Amino acid sequence: QAAWCVLPSRxxxxxxxxxxxxxxxxxxxxxxxxxxLDVTEHPPAQAVFARGIAAAGGRFVCVGTSSGLVLVFDxxxxxxxxxxxxxxxxxxxxxxxxxxxxxxxxDGAGDLVTADDAGTLCVWSAGEEFALLSKIPAFGSTCSSVxxxxxxxxxGYGNGQIRLYEAATGLLRAEVNAHAxxxxxxxxxxxxxxxxxxxxxxxxxxxRLSRDPDTDNVEIxxxxxxxxxxxxVCGARFCDPEGNSFAVTxxxxxxxxxxxxx
Amino acid sequence: xSARTLPLxxxxxxxxxxxxxxxxxxxQSIPGEKARKDEWTxxxxxxxxxxxxxxxxxxxxxxxxxxxxxLYSKKALRTVYDRLAHASIMRLNQASMDKLYDLMTMxxxxxxxxxxxxxxxxxxxxxxxDAIKDFVHDSPGxxxxxxxxxxxxxxxxxCLSAGEFQLIRQTLLIFFQDMHIRVSxxxxxxxxxxxxxxxxxxxxPVPWGTEVPGLIRIFNRNGDEVKRTEFTTDGNxxxxxxxxxxxxxxDRVLKLGTNMYSVSRPVETHMSGSSKNVASRAKENIxxxxxxxxxxNFLARLLGGLEIKEPGGSETGFRLNLFTTDDEEExxxxxxxxELSYKVINIEATQEPARRAQLSRxxxxxxxxxxxxxxxxxxxxxxxxxxGL
Lengths: 262, 389
Fold this sequence. Notes:
Chain A: Residues 1-260 form the WD repeat-containing protein 54 beta-propeller domain. Chain A is an all-beta fold and 262 residues long. In chain A, 0% of the residues lie in helices and 54% in strands. With 389 residues, chain B is mainly α. Chain B is 47% helix and 7% strand.
């Protein structure tokens, strides 16, 4: 995996692989940090890899591992003196995705959410010591991707469902039978609350998240569906913070498709 | 990538190979009494199938196969099937072997791609094994071997999570990435497009455990459902009837992995320009792979330890043609596009003393009783074998 981690002082390019985690300056010129994965932590037949990357709390980069551990790296404003400040041990299955709050969280709603193979989600507040705010239990399906926006956790599952939870309490607020196959990608456009979902069923859907000010209910409405014919969608991302355009990648596809609002 | 993928890859590809061979042997067989000495009979067909299946499910081979390990390279795996296909009196020319391998790999790629749930990869494997058991239903010894492997599959994969199965599936998809060989039977059934890509249907039953897309439910803070809305798409999905069985015996429900060939449907592939991106294929590793030696030594050890049966009576093996005529087969060999050739590894058995010692040791351990042109010594055969790999 590859992700830009945007911190107030610098932007890092973080890469994960089967061997470990690499961090580069944003132009890819210098590798500032290398973290090798500890193979001994895993039982012999299990795959070893790092997966799930997010910048949190203005100071940390969090990366998940196949053993379920989440490594928290403390990033100085500049230089290579990056250290592992903490290891979060709440998950017992391989981490699938990690997301940081991309909007404005209501008080106490958390900075970070981590998801695993079993479908368990954890919401954390970032700091010198990360604190677990809520733990959302699995219901039998892998949580393959997760996003956090305005205190709402948007989770995509292997059975094609999207579920929305209250980050602060872990309460289920919405359930969408969104796709007919495994959801591979979720993205959120922070300025409008649009949500993008891409799955193996060839479909990409655009949704809109919102909160009803009177009832305080979380709302989700379907905006648009796009079928990428004969393609299992593996990646989907908005290209702008309002969500007026998005890009899609798929299995066996050497092209990136870009869709824009007419 | 998952270290548990190889058994599934090997067994499913092996299953496809048996479907194709069975179909070709039936298509070319002559009733016993009327057959000439060099023509296929039903008895020959059964024997070839039995021999190959016995070799495939050899206990020692299975033990090695099930050990956690990385996938073999495409070249190394192709070599295994080459040896497997020649585990009996049957002989295949290069062109026919190429075609056989193309068909096997595209068929399994299709099955992995369309697999509804990651866990259903196991059902696909069980479909293949059920069919294999049917091929050898009157040979209790071999049947036992297959059942053993069945049990080992259940033991190894029975309790893996969906996430682990998805990792296995992804490992397989990466192995098959960029392969777009067009298969006649797929094109006719509209399962593959003319550009070699598979058709992904957006209708039909959803996987077991998935709901038909369309419903949105909103809950209040107390957990009560307060609103329901629906959205529509071009998709036309329905609820599945029941789940397939993961037991030793049972209805698998899933059709993927069952035999799609019958005597009346010939198997053909189209070779021309199956991939527009020639450049990407040419990127295939030309630099010597340091692991190649390791892989081949291991393979040589495994395959060398297996008994290769001698053809009873006649000295020469029976040749099977995967094309309709000998001329077609020759033409296919000459016109196979460069980018689709299964590039072979050249092993220099001469240089380093350590390597020479290794190879000599392996040569010493191997016992092969294969029909060869008169005069060729045992050692020469094996060296020729390895050089030809």
